[in-house]
Amino acid sequence: MDRVVNAVDKQAIAGAFGRAASQYDTLAKLQQQTGEYLMVLAQAEDTGMRVLDAGCGTGFFSARWKQQGKQVIALDLASGMLNYAKGQQVADYYLQGDIEHLGLADNSVDLCFSNLAVQWCNDLPCALREFYRVTRPGGLIVFSTLAQGSLHELAAAWERVDGYQHINPFLPLQTMTQACQPYRHKVINRQYDQCYPQLLPLLNSLKGIGATHLHHGRQQGLMTRKRLNALAEAYPRNNGDYPLSYQIAFGVIYCDK
């Protein structure tokens, strides 16, 4: 199955990430870790001059590529994020757009770099086809995304509290590998673990980076003190702390067309 269970509410996603822009980089430690590893994977190849940062967010990695002398196109769905990136002067060009429908010409970039963005797509194979279309022959695509099993501690706790789905569904690693099959590729799976002394900072870290449950069909409801206490009681603990783990898939696609 190539599609997530619920349709992606892209307007809600853009709004949530736009609102998170000003505080994003102070909270997005996971994104910075995965992006650094993605840069290592990209730099192992001859990446050329023109880089598309697809799902650039605040432009944290657009700036990194620009510092290396690359010509950078920063693209994001959220106008708030893109405006923040513009204010930081992180790129050469800025484009508000959808990864599944890139407003770029065929073969127009040397490297397509996408860090923790394609999990918000309705159709991963469609996103990869777009990346492949805009990347020149001999170019490179690198992406990272959350895989099934991410945030399983939080999902299990919510299941015990009310039985509703509060965590976005993420694709299995096997499905991601299948999406890469039309191309010469490699897929790497890594687990990232975080730990919090209290539950509220854990929840705020997800909310602060815009990664709340944003798909259609989500359970509505305010986080009252009673619900927070119930969630804390149900949450699996590790030496008194609240663990949170992420399964991250890193994809490398070689454009041999």
Describe, in short, the structure shown.
The chain is of the alpha/beta class and 257 residues long. It has helices at 10-27, 29-43, 60-67, 79-88, 124-134, 152-161, 173-179, 199-208, 225-234; strands at residues 50-54, 71-76, 93-96, 109-115, 135-146, 184-196, 242-254. The chain is globular, with a radius of gyration of 18 Å.
* Beta strands, count: 7
Q: Judging from the principal axes of the Cα atoms, what is the shape? A: globular
Quaternary class: single chain
**Largest sheet entry:** 7 strands, mixed
Computed Rg: 18 Å
How would you characterize the overall build of this protein?
It is globular, with a radius of gyration of 18 Å. With 257 residues, the protein is of the alpha/beta class. Mean pLDDT is 86; it is low at 1-6 and 214-219. 39% of the residues lie in helices and 23% in strands. The relative contact order is 0.18. Helix 1 crosses helix 8 (199-208). The chain has a seven-stranded mixed β-sheet with strand order 3-2-1-4-5-7-6, with helices on both faces. It has helices spanning 10-27, 29-43, 60-67, 79-88, 124-134, 152-161, 173-179, 199-208, 225-234, and strands at 50-54, 71-76, 93-96, 109-115, 135-146, 184-196, 242-254. The chain contains nine helices and seven strands, in the order H-H-E-H-E-H-E-E-H-E-H-H-E-H-H-E. The protein starts with 9 loop residues before the first helix and ends with a strand.
